[in-house]
Structures are given as structure tokens and as C-alpha cells.
Q: What sequence folds into this?
């Protein structure tokens, strides 16, 4: 649902010496449930950050399933291949608990992040203010290049929201 969610799902890969920056964050589907002003902007010359507000207009419980699909462009030239990594799918409340348990620092990056154990996640505004990609959460095995992630929240077979996030992973300030 949130670009964040993607950011968080992506945190399954950890990093060392890899720099990861946001390139793009866009909501594609689900404006009746979620309204987002999240944008990638330049904080300064070298640092892209995510900034904006996600308005979640209804409560969400574990009937809302979070799915993530990952695409990789090794050369960073926009030719993406589906990346064959099985990413966990979980209910919204489980997902939030997973973040509390495994990536407690993420909570600090999102204003109004739900409390641990909360279910349903009640309707609210999430604010993300000038947050750079937390590269340190990502494993060093992550291949360089452009990564495009689709985070879909499904209720049954219905896509309730879809976000697309692109990040660039590089080392030595170079591709
Ligand atoms: C951009 O901002 C970050 C965080 O304040 C800082 O660490 C970095 O040195 C800045 N870069 C430039 C080129 O000003
Ligand atoms: C950053 O996001 C906040 C919260 O949505 C908003 O008030 C602010 O105008 C945004 N800043 C910029 C420079 O877009
Ligand atoms: C989620 O909430 C709806 C509406 O209150 C309810 O019908 C459904 O059983 C709940 N799902 C779960 C997994 O608790």
C-alpha cells in the first residue's frame, strides 16, 4: 500500500558498501483506498529523498494481503527482468508486526506508524519527511542496477492499491 511497504519488503535484502537511492515512487491503483503525495525529490545535489503523505482512508486488517514483485535492470537501462525471488506475502497487520520485530528503525522514518500488535490498522495519515533510502538495511549480496518493485495490496482477488517504486543500487558512486 505504501511506498514504504515496498521499501520495507525490500529490506529483506541487507547492504555493505552498496549505496541505494530512490529514483521514483508512484501510486498506480487504488485512489479510493489510498491517496498519496509521496514523491522522490532531491534533498540536495547528491541525496534523493522520499517526501509526502499517504492517506489511508479505511481500516485494514489481515484480509488485506501485501504482495511484492521485483524487477531488475542490470545495466540500469530500463530493460527489466522479473527477479526470481520469492517474496513473503502477508496480511497487513502481520506485515506491520514483522517490521516492528525485524526493522524497528523503520518506525522512526514514518510518522503515525501503527503500534505493534495493532489490528485492524486504523485509517490514518502517514507522513514520510525527507527520508533517504535506508541502505544499511539491505544485504550486500544485492546485485547493482535499477530495481523496480510493485507493492500490491489485495483483498481477495481485487487489487486495492498498487505502488511502484524504483531504486538504484550502486557502489563507488558508479554503476
Ligand atoms: C546532502 O545532505 C546530507 C544530509 O544532510 C549530507 O550528509 C550530505 O553531505 C549533503 N550533500 C551535499 C552535496 O551537500
Ligand atoms: C514534504 O511532505 C510534507 C508532508 O506531506 C509536505 O507538507 C511538504 O510540503 C513536502 N515538501 C516538499 C518540498 O515537497
Ligand atoms: C477484516 O475485517 C472485515 C470487516 O470487518 C471482516 O469481515 C474480516 O473477517 C476481517 N478479516 C480478518 C482476517 O480478520
A:
Amino acid at each position: 500500500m505504501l511506498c514504504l511497504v515496498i521499501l520495507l519488503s525490500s529490506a529483506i535484502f541487507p547492504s555493505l558498501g552498496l549505496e541505494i537511492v530512490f529514483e521514483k515512487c508512484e501510486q498506480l491503483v487504488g485512489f479510493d483506498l489510498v491517496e498519496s503525495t509521496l514523491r522522490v525529490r532531491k534533498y540536495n545535489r547528491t541525496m534523493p529523498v522520499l517526501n509526502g503523505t499517504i492517506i489511508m482512508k479505511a481500516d485494514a486488517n489481515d484480509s488485506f494481503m501485501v504482495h511484492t514483485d521485483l524487477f531488475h535492470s542490470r545495466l540500469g537501462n530500463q530493460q527489466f527482468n522479473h527477479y526470481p525471488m520469492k517474496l513473503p506475502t502477508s496480511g497487513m497487520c502481520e506485515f506491520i508486526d514483522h517490521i516492528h520485530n525485524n526493522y524497528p528503525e523503520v518506525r522512526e522514518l514514518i510518522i503515525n506508524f501503527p503500534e505493534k500488535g495493532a489490528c485492524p490498522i486504523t485509517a490514518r495519515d502517514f507522513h514520510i519527511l525527507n527520508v533517504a533510502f535506508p541502505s544499511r538495511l539491505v544485504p550486500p549480496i544485492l546485485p547493482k542496477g535499477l530495481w523496480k518493485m510493485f507493492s500490491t495490496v489485495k483483498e481477495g482477488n481485487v487489487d486495492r492499491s498498487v505502488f511502484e517504486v524504483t531504486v538504484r543500487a550502486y557502489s563507488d558512486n558508479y554503476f
Remarks:
- The radius of gyration is 15 Å.
- The longest strand covers residues 158-170.
- The CA atoms of residues 45 and 67 lie 34 Å apart.
- The helical segments are 3-9, 92-102.
